[in-house]
Amino acid sequence: MTKLIRLAALAAAVTVVATPAVAAPVSASPTASANVRILKPLELRGIRNLDFGTIVVGAVVGTDTVSITQAGVLTCGSGGQLTCSGTVASGQYNVRGSNNAVVTISAVASNLSNGTTNLLFTPNAPATVTLTSSGAPGDNFNVGGSIGLTAATPEGLYTGVMNVTVDYQ
Fold first, then answer.
1. How much is the mean pLDDT over the chain?
2. Per the CB 3.0–4.6 Å rule, which of 24, 29, 83, 169 could disulfide with 56?
3. Number of other CB atoms surrounding residue 15 within 10 Å
């Protein structure tokens, strides 16, 4: 009988040890929070067209590059075979959105065309702008760029569209 009681006690002890313990619910410490930042939609509009002025192409060897900086400073090739004149200007855009937000600027290459021939236009834009005067009037940024010319570049008025987009960072 004593063996039977010991055996029953041992079986009860094994059952208690083998039963998983149920943990009491515990809250996170420290607690986690949820956040959201609401921004105004971005508005982008062109203010000023980029203008390379007038370029006379001489006996260019290879390709010579004409470029305008974001500040509107023109570099008229490097080989002395180009003559640049007239009014030049970098392009200018205005962006509106939420105050103190950083906006990324993307400008991709495009073609300037005289109707039959294309010139590759490579833009030069700032990577970002911080909106410090959002709403009205917004913040302005300038876009420069470059074109490559050869002695065989046909004459004509070349026009095209600058492909510029903005997005919140």
1. 89
2. 83
3. 9
Adjacent-strand bridge partners of 163: 108
Within its chain, how far is the Cα of 32 from the centroid? 32
Judged by average pLDDT, the poorest of 2-11, 36-45, 146-155 is 2-11
Q: Are 158 and 114 in contact (CB under 8 A)?
A: yes
- Identity of the residue numbered 73: V
Domain parsing of the chain, residue ranges: 43-168
What own/partner pairs with CB < 8 Å and gap ≥ 24 does 112-117 have? Answer: 112/147, 112/158, 112/159, 112/160, 113/158, 113/159, 113/160, 114/154, 114/155, 114/156, 114/157, 114/158, 114/159, 115/156, 116/154, 116/156, 117/153, 117/154, 117/156, 117/158
Which residue from 106, 97, 101, 108 is spatially nearest to 169, judged by alpha carbons? 101
Compute the distance between CA of residue 132 and CA of residue 5 in angstroms, rounded to an integer: 84
With 80 as the cut, is the pLDDT of residue 87 above it?
A: yes
In 3D space, the residue among 113, 120, 110 whose CA is nearest the CA of residue 154 turns out to be: 113
93-146 tens-digit pLDDT? 999 999 999 999 999 999 999 999 999 999 999 999 999 876 678 899 999 999
Other Cβ atoms less than 10 A from the Cβ of 8: the count is 10
pLDDT at 11: 56
